[in-house]
Amino acid sequence: MLETKNLTIRFGGHVAVNAVSCSFAPGTLTAIVGPNGAGKTTYFNLISGQLPATEGEVWLDGEDVSRLPAPLRARRGLGRAFQLTQLFPHLTAQENVRLAVQARESGRHGGGFDLARVWLDRRAWIEEAQSLLETVRLLDKANVLASTLAHGDQRKLEVALLIALDPKVYMFDEPTAGMSVDEVPVILDLVRQLKQRRDCAVLLVEHKMDVVRELADRVIVLHNGQLAAQGEPSAVMASAVVQQAYLGVVPQEQLA
Ligand SMILES: Nc1ncnc2c1ncn2[C@@H]1O[C@H](COP(=O)(O)OP(=O)(O)OP(=O)(O)O)[C@@H](O)[C@H]1O
Questions:
Q1: pTM for this model (two decimals)
Q2: Which atom of ligand 1 is nearest to the CA of 42?
Q3: Could you state, in order of their start, the residue ranges of all structural domains in the chain?
Q4: What single Pfam family name could you report for this chain, choosing any that match (predicted)?
């Protein structure tokens, strides 16, 4: 269970995320929506530790992780989809995924370096990496350098890396942005599969409302950094606050 309590960040006089308290249960996919500049990505950055909160807390499975740097939060199970800058551009797609598998296993075995174990486990890591590349439809690009993959393929690789780390919380920030129409279903299928699992929570920042309607169990709306609404997708989308704040529709009573 992930929970933010009163989570806040100020940039000078601007409050980008303002006292957001929210919890995210395993087995639930929560979509985070809101207009441009509402604070969605900043909220993600505060949860994953990329930005330090001015006030408030982030709790994961009963532990206050607010003061932990991003890598330690990742190790606790907060899985943020990688940015390209976090991939190894001069390694192949398979080598990148293999390193993520290896990092996960090393974390599980206490992080020590055991040469015999590395040798023995190497084949299994490669097989798992190949299988993950197949899952994200990248097997035919296994030996291509990450830096030379097309944009859509790089995003698939990011998802493969995230799955390899087996986090408790999956955080996707517009996972299909910039993808071609035929690539989008692959990523959405993967998100759909994760949603089926009962042991992880999925957080999805998404602008495409049809995707939100189809995938989300719950929607939270950020507006000017504040939690403006939350609840079941159809109810939240129909609410006046969302129609006005997000979709730009002025409610009927205000038109009268
Ligand atoms: N490092 C920073 N320094 C100063 N202001 C920032 C910083 N990061 C974000 N902001 C500001 O915080 C506000 C929220 O930005 P954020 O990117 O979180 O919005 P968003 O909801 O993700 O928008 P979009 O949908 O366009 O991606 C914006 O006004 C932005 O300019």
A1: 0.88
A2: 18
A3: 1-77+167-256, 82-166
A4: ABC_tran
